[in-house]
Specification:
Elements: E1 7-8, H1 13-24, E2 31-43, E3 46-58, E4 69-70, E5 74-81, H2 86-94, E6 97-100, E7 103-106, E8 112-119, E9 130-136, E10 148-150, E11 153-156, H3 159-167, E12 180-186, E13 190-198, E14 203-210, E15 216-224, E16 227-235, E17 239-243, E18 252-260, E19 266-274, H4 283-289, E20 295-298, H5 306-321, E21 325-329, H6 341-345, H7 355-372, E22 380-387, E23 390-397, E24 413-416, E25 419-422, H8 429-432
Parallel strand pairs: 3-12, 20-21
Antiparallel strand pairs: 1-8, 2-3, 2-5, 4-5, 6-7, 8-9, 9-12, 10-11, 13-14, 14-17, 15-16, 15-18, 18-19, 21-23, 22-23, 24-25
Length: 434
């Protein structure tokens, strides 16, 4: 069947089964395990589903330890099985319940898959890109918010903390994924990465990591000053050049490419709103954009507070390994500019007279600390800013030319959303090594 659009809101059980059959019966498929994760809530004498997730793993994917944990009112089921066991699970779903390691879990009514979304790599469910299929179970049950504690079991401050720790998904009490069932199927034919930008020839280098020898087709678009440029390439090679001609890289917005097979199935998808990071012209603009891929806010951290200061060099490495970024110091958790004045004047290691001299000294020490904890030099622009009577420190980290950058313990950090993550040796390094 064709998977030729990012979203399909008309997906159903029959389409889901057909799609899974085609994937799992493909002799070239690298899918080799099915990971089952379920959170169940006690409802009198019964157990009801709070979250049921099926994730397929490819060969070489890391398996976590199977850690089923049962508390008085909450059960966490976690185990691996063969991929084709998914069809038995779907058949059980139609009957309104599912049996996991001998325990019957009620799913409620309307156990129909209804929605499919193609999601990019490094998502919540997998390091691979793939299709995320959802079913609504309509299985409302009160979720306890109490601490989970027992003498022989892990401590969790609440159920959402446990779900994040055990299943790797961040949820809250209003999350639409609660009381539902989901399947994630990774796309295993190939992956496409932004390899590098070649400034001399003004072109972007893309790399394909393939598991088959078939031809792939690259289709996409990017925007420059309100005009759109089409991208069309066909290749059996592993390298693709996207030439920008007269278009300047800093003016390119909404860069999007799809990799398709001969049947127009989506194999991979890349979207970037910016290919390089903007140097913001004002503090207001930098505050308005919020924390994310290219912006990080920090309160003042003393130079001797190395446990807290570690996050500064990790963010610097992550920005340099990604597309560059901005660190603004003197901003609280509510994105209020509170300044560094109080912190820096009481810092015993910053003894210079006058606030401006203290800021200069802090920048010197901070950049030295970053340099001492990184394996290579990274270009950092820095400035002290008097903003409405308070002082802020701004660091602009340029996109690195010699990626991957790492800390002194050889940890390679990359930026994912508003967080710094350790690079995956198999998937991320291909995109970083020049």
């Amino acid at each position: 069947m064709h998977i030729n659009k990012l979203r399909d809101h008309q997906f159903n059980n029959d389409k889901t089964i057909k799609f899974l059959e085609e994937k799992l019966n493909d002799g070239n498929s690298a899918i080799h395990k099915l990971r089952v994760s379920c959170v169940a809530i006690r409802d009198g004498e019964n157990w009801r589903n709070a979250l049921l997730l099926f994730r397929f793993l490819l060969e070489g994917d890391r398996q976590i330890e199977e850690r089923e944990v049962f508390y008085d009112d909450i059960r966490f089921h976690e185990f691996y099985t063969t991929p084709k066991h998914i069809f038995a699970f779907i058949e059980q779903m139609r009957q309104g319940s599912i049996e996991l390691n001998g325990q019957r879990i009620l799913l409620g009514s309307a156990n129909e898959f209804y929605n499919r979304v193609f999601i990019q790599k490094e998502n919540e469910y997998s390091k691979h890109q793939g299709n995320f299929i959802s079913a609504s179970n309509r299985n409302q049950v009160s979720i306890p918010y109490d601490v989970l504690i027992a003498h022989n079991k892990p401590y969790y401050k609440n159920i959402y903390h446990a779900i994040e720790n055990k299943i790797g998904i961040k949820l809250n009490n209003s999350d639409a994924r609660l009381f539902t069932t989901h399947i994630f199927i990774p796309e295993d034919k190939a992956e496409i990465f932004i390899e590098a930008y070649e400034e001399e020839n003004n072109k972007l280098l893309l790399t394909i990591k393939r598991r088959t020898e078939e031809a792939f087709f690259i289709r996409g678009v990017y925007e420059v000053n309100g005009d759109y440029r089409e991208i069309e390439e066909a290749t059996k090679d592993n390298n693709i050049d996207i030439e920008f001609g007269e278009d300047r890289l800093e003016n390119i917005r909404d860069f999007e490419v799809f990799m398709l097979d001969i049947n127009d199935n989506i194999i991979d998808h890349i979207y970037a709103d910016l290919l390089i990071t903007k140097q913001y012209s004002s503090i207001e603009e930098l505050l308005a954009v919020g924390e994310g891929e290219t912006v990080e806010y920090k309160m003042y951290i003393r130079i001797k507070e190395t446990d807290k200061l570690q996050d500064i060099y990790k963010t610097t490495i992550a920005f340099a390994n990604s597309s560059g970024g901005n660190i603004l110091i003197g901003i609280n958790d509510y994105v209020d500019p509170v300044g560094i004045d109080k912190g820096i004047t009481s810092d015993p290691d910053i003894t210079d007279p006058g606030i401006e001299a203290k800021c200069d000294k802090y920048i010197i020490l901070l950049k030295k600390y970053i340099s001492d904890n990184i394996n290579d030099s990274i270009q950092i622009e820095s400035d002290k800013i008097n903003y409405k009577g308070i002082w802020l420190i701004h660091l602009f980290i340029h996109k690195g030319l010699n990626t991957p950058y790492a800390d002194k313990s050889n940890n390679i950090w990359i930026r994912k959303g508003s967080s710094n993550k350790k690079a995956d040796p198999k998937m991320d390094l291909k995109n970083l090594v020049k």
